[in-house]
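Long-time lurker. I teach an intro course on protein structure, and each term I like to show students one example going from raw sequence to a predicted 3D structure in token notation. This year I'd like something fresh instead of my usual example. Would anyone be willing to generate the tokens for the chain below so I can use it in lecture? Attribution to the forum is fine with me.
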Amino acid sequence: MKKVTVFIILVILVFGSAILGAFLGVSLASTRDNNAQMAVQQPADASSPSTNVISISSSEISTTITQVVERVEPAVVTVIGQTPGQMTFFGYSGDQQVSGSGFIITANGYIITNNHVVEGTNSVSVVLSDGTELQAQVVNTEKYADLAVLKVQGEMPGEAILGDSDNLKPGETVIAIGSPLGDFRNSVTVGVVSATGRTLDTGSGYEMENLIQTDAAINSGNSGGPLVNLAGEVVGINTAVVRGSGTSASAEGLGFAIPSNIALLISQQIIDQGYFARPYLGVTVQPINPSIARRYELPVEWGAYITRVGANSPAARADLQVGDIIVRMGEEALDENTQFLNALFTFQPGDVIEVEVLRQDARLVSQVTLVEAVAR
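-- Reply from a regular --
Happy to contribute to a lecture. Here you go:
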């Protein structure tokens, strides 16, 4: 009986294990099928490292430079002039076209450009930023500062704001806008202020003084266009580039611009009275600021250090000397708000003014009669 009982128990265990195994197998297979169906019905997770998905995001990119260009560009114009032809050995050469750049400074159509852009032309027109071409009148020019003021009629697409060029510092970012070669209108180049207070020999018997040097690319056709700071203010008028010639070494990145403060003084007089009479003292100066004063241990933080006195000039007749520091002209003290040329240009040729200088430890006041500038 014991053997029969053990046999029956073994049979029950075998059949029970078989039934339990079959049940578990069917359940596992059903679960796998359901998971497979879900995988087909649901989209793949893009974050899964095994999924090859390329994501494209559209975002608006805006920088200070692009914002400045968008603000100033509508005021920039292309200046086109016609120069009369000349009789040559091979016959009459026919009229020639010259081009440069400029920018609108008032809502009623006054435009600043370079004198050399319009010099010798018999007709001038400007192309606005929207492509409109307008005939222009040359109101007047100032040869020695290489500035000209034009006037056009019509609705202006923009108006440039002139900033304070006396606040410029070497290393400051600047933007040049113009029409190089006359074809690539409103091209933009970016650089820095390399130096201020530069003097450039024009090769025509006189020098241009107090220029801004920049490495922003300035090419033929950029002349007269604006040099702009990151506040969107015009701080200079692009006028020249030096690359070297002949036996001198070639160079790149030597562009020069007329300071906006000088351009404002001259253009305002031309607009108000139709001409600019440049007063001439007869000195070349180096502006003094606190940084230069500390470096060279000078007795004043602001002024103009005389580096050259012209022969038989008003300054020479008043006994001003190299090494003198001009600290006052008339009632205008030279300081952070009033530089030498700013003070000088408030006077007219023929004015008799007091010029106060520091000479070593002494303060001297001289009476100087200004004359009108001529090629020198």
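Some talking points for your students: The radius of gyration is 38 Å. The mean pLDDT is 83.
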